[in-house]
Amino acid sequence: xxxxxxxxxxxxxxxxxxxxxxxxxxxxxxxxxxxxxxxxxxxxxxxxxxxxxxxxxxxxxxxxxxxxxxxxxxxxxxxxxxxxxxxxxxxxxxxxxxxxxxxxxxxxxxxxxxxxxxxxxxxxxxxxxxxxxxxxxxxxx
Amino acid sequence: xxxxxxxxxxxxxxxxxxxxxxxxxxxxxxxxxxxxxxxxxxxxxxxxxxxxxxxxxxxxxxxxxxxxxxxxxxxxxxxxxxxxxxxxxxxxxxxxxxxxxxxxxxxxxxxxxxxxxxxxxxxxxxxxxxxxxxxxxxxxxxxxxxxxxxxxxxxxxxxxxxxxxxxxxxxxxxxxxxxxxxxxxxxxxxxxxxxxxxxxxxxxxxxxxxxxxxxxxxxxxxxxxxxxxxxxxxxxxxxxxxxxxxxxxxxxxxxxxxxxxxxxxxxxxxxxxxxxxxxxxxxxxxxxxxxxxxxxxxxxxxxxxxxxxxxxxxxxxxxxxxxxxxxxxxxxxxxxxxxxxxxxxxxxxxxxxxxxxxxxxxxxxxxxxxxxxxxxxxxxxxxxxxxxxxxxxxxxxxxxxxxxxxxxxxxxxxxxxxxxxxxxxxxxxxxxxxxxxxxxxxxxxxxxxxxxxxxxxxxxxxxxxxxxxxxxxxxxxxxxxxxxxxxxxxx
Lengths: 141, 491
Fold this sequence. Notes:
The complex is a heterodimer.
Chain A (H helix, E strand, L loop, with lengths): L3 H24 L7 H19 L1 H6 L5 H21 L9 E4 L2 E4 H35 L1
Antiparallel strand pairs in A: 1-2
Chain B lengths: L5 H15 L3 H29 L2 E5 L8 E5 L1 H23 L3 H5 L2 H17 L3 H20 L4 H32 L4 H7 L5 H19 L7 H5 L5 H25 L5 H24 L4 H22 L2 H32 L10 H4 L1 H15 L5 H16 L2 H27 L13 H19 L2 H15 L2 H11 L1
Antiparallel strand pairs in B: 1-2
Helix pairs in contact in B: 1-2, 1-5, 2-3, 3-5, 3-11, 3-14, 3-19, 5-6, 5-11, 6-7, 6-11, 7-9, 8-21, 9-11, 11-13, 11-14, 12-13, 12-18, 13-14, 13-17, 13-18, 14-16, 14-17, 14-19, 14-20, 16-18, 16-19, 17-18, 17-19
């Protein structure tokens, strides 16, 4: 979609949406929001950018393949679940500690894992769809 | 630190590490190490359960019946151990014959997610969580089934996908009805409440669960999908499926029909006995009519699920012990036969029986190796299959169920006949065409030898496993310690 308005605004919106997604991620602890919703918004940002600037431009904004992010996200979630286990409590029990004066807990870390996993999974689906559409077009043309 | 969650954490960690490290060479090592670690953790769990009784853990420390409960009794722990053995054998086979395209598509993470789901289903103490674990293992198995997108794989995958989804919907409906009528989902909590429901409603629920799990376990009349789909993927995938997936259905039936629906055994377990008999007969006869090795084995797989249901249908301590012993023995034997089918495919380039032959002359040791699991499947002494069938037959005679014992013995003979036919076709017959024998098969033998030696070892030294199976059967028939282990911990 090659319109000037979309191309100009999408660059602003991309940053704004990513900020919003991180805001939603951390807001989710006590209020509506969370890793899942936050990741959906972030994927929305990438999809908008891909619509305006093309898929390869959107791909360049991500330094690694989105499927790798699924692995890293799951790893983060797994580690957050393991903290309690290693402390001798049942798996996934919430553990809270203070980091530079900010109260941090394993549920937040788990949510970050969810964020990365959902983001990676949906983004690789979107990139995959676009790839198969491209292959289809080149077969016809 | 309880070892109860280790059989879940190990495959999950392995799968996640395989996702993070994309290089196939590293994944191979991780896959084997993960399978070995799974076996070790499963053995640790069995030891813990045997020493200290039934183990229960409330995930996240939310008390039962509201939290997520995992329970391990002898049955669960034994199934997890047998699953670990199958996982190790398959991992060794996959290492010996690397399938690079499928490894790039994620064979290792997917197979360990599958093990994660299977172990979750074995260990969960909550009927809705069991549904979730079924979904975990189904999603992984859907992808594994069509991994590489072969034409036969896609055709088999569609059938598998449709049947599995249908069974999941039925399962979910049954869980919904159960929750709506009792207000509980925790199995131990349900066990105390189901008895209060009207008996007609209980029986209706029982039949819904029988159909839902029967579809998964591939019993009569719901087995048609299994021989249509299992032979399609490569053997490192189908051996894993054959060893594990139907047993999850059998496990779910064993659990639900002893803990929840044992109030009207004349009806519910009578139906199960009919299902068992028809599964045995139809599977065995259909196996005789097959001309392709893996399809034949798939029908044998279906047929022998009947033995495990037979013990459940009889519902005596000895019969249930027979069922458990049979399930464990069958996991090893059928995986060995599927892996052997893969090895024969490697040697002959086909698994169509008429086009195979002559292996007795070129590989006499291999012929002997085939006979070990084949005789065990048929139930000849001194293999583990003999004790499994012997226990079930003894239990049947004790209960006066002569018809099903007759069927069981007849199917044993039919299995022997079918295995004899395979032996004659693959090993004795002069091959229809001369072909060069490819090398490199020696590496593939090792996992089969491992499983074959295990079935022989269990046969010669059956006492410990039989004692464990009998303990599992006692726990199934007397659910009070199970209920106390779950509900007592939190209070």
